[in-house]
Design a protein that fits this description.
With 366 residues, the chain is of the alpha/beta class. The protein contains 13 helices and 15 strands.
Amino acid sequence: MVRLGIAGIGTIAKDYIGLIAGGQVGGVKLTALCSRNRESARQMDERYGLNSRIFQDYGEMLRSGLVDGVLICTPHGQHPAMALQAVEAGIHVLVEKPAGILEEEVGAVLRALEQRPGLVCGVLYNRRASRAFRYVKGLVESGEIGELVRCTWIITDLYRTNAYYTSGSWRGTWRGEGGGLLMTQASHQLDLMQWICGMPSSVLARCSSVGRPIQVENEAELLLAYPGGAHGHFIASAHECPGTNLLEICGTRGRVSVREDSEVEVVRLREDERSFARSCTDPFRKAPSNMQTLTFDDSDNKVQQAATIRNFACAVEGREEIQCDLADGLRSLQIIHGAYLSQWKGEEVSLPAPEKEFREFLLQQG
């Protein structure tokens, strides 16, 4: 049983507390809650009958001897420093996405982890728990759809009203969130794209704010280039309604599509498209193929959140690999940084983007 402390008792932490207290996360016991608002933490403890200890001082919770691991649910910019503090205290860490705002701060945590190889440090990219996306990753990695040609994600169903951005003074600001749609809602899908298709080599981006009282973007379009000549598109919005959620990955031996995180369509060519194109004498004939359709029933966000926290507990106990370690979480952050730098400079940016230049531009945003 992993004794878990949660730092930052806001909206998302309350969801996690409800999942754990409701028995949906096996192998975890909530033993500590830490918040600057002691009353909010106390109310959550009483609501679920946790009998956990309430802390206002994060360091005191880490030193208490009551926790084996900590789940960090504070604003983005605080993630690396709090993760580093936990690692230095010998405590396992699961941090809310994104891993942080600045790459160099996340890098400091990675260096500390090198000195403590027995510690687990993961990022809560819970969409990786999806059986649909795990299936797709297996198809791509096995070579079943051939070499990557194109990947496209239209993820425009991340709708947020004005009330979302006014729910916290840090939301919708460069200083508080370090970015907008790409850093928050759509970072799950960017993470999945790099997890399944690999790290792109460059990005050309257009980011804008539409119809909301915010500093940061709630709309983004990314053109991605991959080693070997493949290309990608990432089209995201938090203001379109209704929106679309469609991932397509095209290879030289077929295509896989995922709709609404649950409906998977696989089209397999009977031979590699390149060899078919060379041998076929008909200028308009298409390569013969067959189609398979599958439906997965675990697309609910809370199901995946519970599975991700459970995976963390298993990783702490040495029974599973962590679903998304900090180094992998950093790669998603590097794509986001590259997209912002591309928007600010008006040009294509190689990945990973130069961190010093990114930070200089970020400071100019206010």
